[in-house]
Amino acid sequence: MADSSFDIVSKVDHQEADNALNQARKEVEQRYDFKGTDSSIEWSGEAILIKANSEERAKAVLDVFQSKLIKRGISLKSLESGDPVASGKEYRITSTLKDGISSENAKKISKLIRDEGPKSVKSQIQGDELRVQSKSRDDLQEVQRLLKAADLDVDLQFINYR
């Protein structure tokens, strides 16, 4: 019998992220507590740029954006935000969406599978994703449960289950 396998990836649906950003921008433009504060959120290339006239307002805009991401089903583990930085009269926060599993996180996940997972399971790193193989589908499901329960600093999805 052939081995069963699945891939572990960390991908962000950019269309959903764009929708969340547009919703956050509309809310910031319409909310009473943001009136006259020159607060904005927009794409700046691949990054997300938040501008406001005070540090607290910039953090509030980031909070609005985070709530929209959660409503759209995007984990906050895939959002990397810096601290507010003063730039002239305004404060800026630059955020990025993390796509793919970094090599050190892939090594951590692979080690976790090796140490705590069923013995028949093999994992191999393929670029920014991991392939997990085993003869038993039950062992693969056990690995998925193990990874969902683990507190990793990366958002994981399981695809290509065969």
Textual characterization of the structure:
By secondary structure, the chain is of the alpha+beta class. 38% of the residues lie in helices and 28% in strands. Strands 2, 3, 4, 5 and 6 form a 5-stranded antiparallel sheet that branches. Strands 7-8-1-9 form a 4-stranded antiparallel sheet, with helices on one face. The longest helix is centred in the first third of the chain and has 17 residues, at 14-30. The mean pLDDT is 91. InterPro entries: UPF0234-like_C, UPF0234_N, YajQ-like_sf, YajQ/Smlt4090-like. Keywords: Nucleotide-binding. Belongs to the YajQ family.
What's the N-to-C terminus distance? 13 Å
Order of helices and strands: EHEEHEEEHEEHE
The total count of strands amounts to 9
Overall geometry comes to elongated
Biggest sheet layout: 5 strands, antiparallel
| Poorly predicted spans | none
Function: Nucleotide-binding protein.
InterPro entries: UPF0234-like_C, UPF0234_N, YajQ-like_sf, YajQ/Smlt4090-like
Protein name: Nucleotide-binding protein HF576_04095
Keywords: Nucleotide-binding
Strand-helix topology:
Blueprint: E1 4-9, H1 14-30, E2 40-44, E3 47-52, H2 55-71, E4 79-81, E5 85-87, E6 90-97, H3 103-116, E7 122-126, E8 129-134, H4 137-149, E9 157-159
Antiparallel strand pairs: 1-8, 1-9, 2-3, 3-6, 4-6, 5-6, 7-8
Helix pairs in contact: 1-2
Summarize the structure.
Belongs to the YajQ family. By secondary structure, the chain is an alpha+beta fold. The chain has helices at 14-30, 55-71, 103-116, 137-149, and strands spanning 4-9, 40-44, 47-52, 79-81, 85-87, 90-97, 122-126, 129-134, 157-159.
